[in-house]
Amino acid sequence: MNEAHQELIAAALAARAAAVAPYSRFRVGASLLTAEGAIISGANMESASYGLSCCAERVALFKALSEGHRGFTAIAVAAPGGPAPCGACRQWLAEHAGGATVILVDAAVPDKPVFTTVAELLPRPFTGDALAGAPPAG
Known about the structure:
- The chain is of the alpha+beta class.
- The protein is 28% helix and 21% strand.
- It has a single domain, classed as 3-Layer(aba) Sandwich (Cytidine Deaminase, domain 2).
């Protein structure tokens, strides 16, 4: 684990404090490392209507994209038990950070992260490339 990964993990752990999780109490923090070396963090945001909630990974990605970042080399996700991103987050990561290293961090044992990749989490993603040959709508 290199220094950049350690910083990314620390940022993801810190981001958990901003989680809005009044229903599940399951706090998640995520931090993206941009190609330029910036770290952009996010936390999960819950709604009483669970379908309107947003995972920490997407919050971090939305923030980064809205700030103009387009290249990502890694993402750290910190949560109890160190789970992998959900399917929706995997899809967003495949489209915008497909080559990124994914670092899964159990918030209770942060010194034992699991390293994987977006491609390992979603081996055959549906991306814009699949739409290139589609006929125009209408």
